Amino acid sequence: MYEGVIQNLIDELGRLPGVGPKGAQRIAFHLLAADSEDVRRLAAALIEVTERVRFCKTCGNVAEAEECRICLDTRRDPSVICVVEEPKDVAAVEKIREFRGRYHVLGGAISPIDGVGPDDLRIRELMARLADGTVTMGLRVTRPASGLPVGGDLEYADEVTLGRAFEGRRLLDV
Amino acid sequence: MYEGVIQNLIDELGRLPGVGPKGAQRIAFHLLAADSEDVRRLAAALIEVTERVRFCKTCGNVAEAEECRICLDTRRDPSVICVVEEPKDVAAVEKIREFRGRYHVLGGAISPIDGVGPDDLRIRELMARLADGTVTMGLRVTRPASGLPVGGDLEYADEVTLGRAFEGRRLLDV
User: Fold this and answer.
1) pLDDT tens by residue, A124-158
2) Which of A160, B3, B117, B139 is the most buried (most CB within 10 A)?
3) A121 at the B interface (CB within 8 A)?
């Protein structure tokens, strides 16, 4: 449809998650009209990420050094580990500013349908971390409560979530 | 929230039209997990567009040479010019494969509220093209019909469109 390099950019953008063909076209024309410095900055940010980001050797989170910022932070409690699927889950938990322990990123979840078993995740690494005695194994394992979003309407909750919300209902001080 | 280069990429992606903060994060993590060759290809496509795309000196469409593919195509009828706002409108009209003339891209529309007047658009260039005699001035100026989308429901049409659809209604052969 377009001349080579524009169509090429539209095709590349269209491969990104959440960007359809119309969105890719819109972004491409936005970039065409944009200051070329802005486009270069975006291109440089892409290259930098491929060159500089690696995965923390301890927890598997994204990092710019051997270990991530959180593992390097000595103020964080090493005796509590929050196990999550992906690096973006670390960011989500960090955002609530409540958890002061460390993380362990599994790199996915067990999913037989996608052929992902325990050996495809960083479970061995988790066991090794637990074995060194910093975290006392078998003591306490918790998971976040399932339930309704704060301020959410009952009618929009799926049955499983509503079921969990009822199972886990808490006594009010009245 | 994230280490420097990742946050930087998320910020840059978040500036693109139609990409919110969540979308930017999703794209960034997709790129982190992607083959670094794929990311480099996207970065190269961005750079290529800034370096190689310019605007056709005749019609104002995007081009990789002095003139765009359409202006260079001698099979296209030079006596008919379709005037559009943006290069992406050229692509939209080309998609219907009906129009065999040339284009003129104004680079926007008159919009006093945004401070865009006739002098900000490529109207002078259009007049110059018309003056050379290839297109006979004053002969016929048309605009596409306004109306309902094919298969569209009446209830979803705004009043102005529905009004235009009624004004322009066509006799059926029955």
Assistant:
1) 999 899 888 777 766 677 777 777 777 777 677 77
2) B3
3) no
